[in-house]
Amino acid sequence: MDEGWNRSAGAWLALMGRDGDFSRTHVLDAPMLARTRGATRALDVGCGEGRFCRMMAAQVPEVTGLDPTRALLDVARERGAAEFVEGRAEDMPFDDGAFDLVVSYLTLIDIPDAWAGLSEMVRVLCPGGRLLIANLQGWLTAAQTKADGWSRDDEGAASMVVDRYFEEHAFRGAWKGMSILNWHRPLAWYMQTLLGLGLELVHFDEPKAEGGAEAERYNRAPYLLMMEWRKPAARAARPGG
């Protein structure tokens, strides 16, 4: 399946620049980076051009980025600061328990088989390790199924049309030269899947925008969330059995 990332890589690099877009620089970067403290071996799944890997490398001794798009990995390797590996989330080329932190930074909507991807993230986590997720709110991904999600009244006021919220489905997002196949899943699907994989929820937030020209508008209708899950530590064997 062609999700469009190879054709959209140039547009993505132009959109992100060195620092990233509004959602990253003014909403998610600071709280996400704060949750990476204390990690020693971190994996960024869907690392793209490696921007968040470079941020983590300032405080995490070993950082690895994984991505299936070679054009983005070439830029990531050129800019350095971490090890970059070509591969897909659904079938990672890493040993069990290889990392004490796995990061999925706005990448779950890009993974066709999210159950397989999350299962792999849990597999490569060591006991006691943490899975740190940033994702779009489900109401936003469900709203992109009709006319890009927007409708306007006679006075030009915009509103969003949410449809098929409970139904997992693909949609093609097109903006600023990008054309990417994404997947909508309701929040309950993510929560139930992560609980079913044996993880424990230790942090959940809908961070506010801090600065930036779009902050006021964003804070009136926020569309990003973050959560941190912990893989239970291995239990000690009972004496005699």
TrEMBL record:
Keyword vocabulary terms for this entry: Methyltransferase, S-adenosyl-L-methionine, Transferase
EC number assigned by the record:
2.1.1.163
- GO MF, one annotated term: demethylmenaquinone methyltransferase activity
Main EC class the enzyme belongs to = transferase
List the Pfam families: Methyltransf_11
Q: Which residues form the Methyltransferase type domain?
A: 43-133
Task: Give the InterPro entries listed for this entry.
Answer: Methyltransf_11, SAM-dependent_MTases_sf
Biological process GO annotation list? methylation
- Record keyword S-adenosyl-L-methionine present: yes
What protein name does the entry list? Answer: Demethylmenaquinone methyltransferase
Give the species this sequence originates from. Roseovarius indicus
